What does this fold into?
Amino acid sequence: MRWLLVFVSLALSACSESTGGSKKCKGSYANPVVNLCSEHWPDAKSTRVWMVVFYTSWCGHCRALEPKYKELGKLLKNDKSIGIGAVDCDIDRATCSKYGVSGFPALKAIVSGKGKSYNGARETEPMKAWIEGIAKNRGTKGGSAKCAVGLFKSRVKDAVVPLCEEHFPDDKAKNDWLVLFYNSKSSASTDLKEVLHRLAVDLGNDPPDMSKSLKKPKKKRERLESLAEKYDFAVDLPKKGPFGMDALAKVGGVCCDCNEDAVAFCASSLRIGEEDVQAPQVFWVSKGHRELLKDADMSAPSLNKLAVTKLGFVSGGARASQGGEL
It folds into this structure.
């Protein structure tokens, strides 16, 4: 009986992999496009590369894409290396948030559970060629998994972490992050680099290869009090704590004009609803949830206060889990 149960379990697993989803996931699409949701999602163990559209019922561009996307599903329904799926973001907001989707429609390849944004024409043939190329090149060597460094080239001097779609803080990240999406060729790039580095150091971050003798560790509570005095704002601290000497928050930068993948990632990330916003823009990222702080003041005093507010140590901010006692 035990062997029978194992066999049935494996058979069901294989069936799920071949179809890629479940009838339990609700959505407006039908076979051969699979309605996906958090309960039935192509994770790191999936043998297929998936093309997934993230959409809403109210989005006009989504409705315009639908017949072309259905045609894509028909053309690739017999390709065992590719799955074509769709997520209704009105229903499954958690999955859409996890993949940083706030504008619609958003098209991504899902490879081993990780997203890769599509920024080409919303036509059947270009989409087909793109996802076939990703499936063909899956697992090949020769590329680098590292993010484009953009403005932050020195591991000895730069405390800002270069980020990209393949390496972006997710729901397993220990720290909260303040992330700047920027254009390295912008006339304001030099000033942005200086401001973001200053912010990173203020919040307690050091360049990864900085000499230990140059590092100046400080307790979190002392750092918060110092920032309040330095930038002239009031902090609301618990009676004890917050404890620890690690950074209050990490600081990252996404170069939006460094390569094609970066352009696609930024185009997807900087689309809010059906509106495209322009870099530079700042996101607050906590437990994988991305919040666009649209048109934030790009100065060190303002960004420091903004970060401390998001951490919950300025009146009106949402108290974060910093280990303090109220």
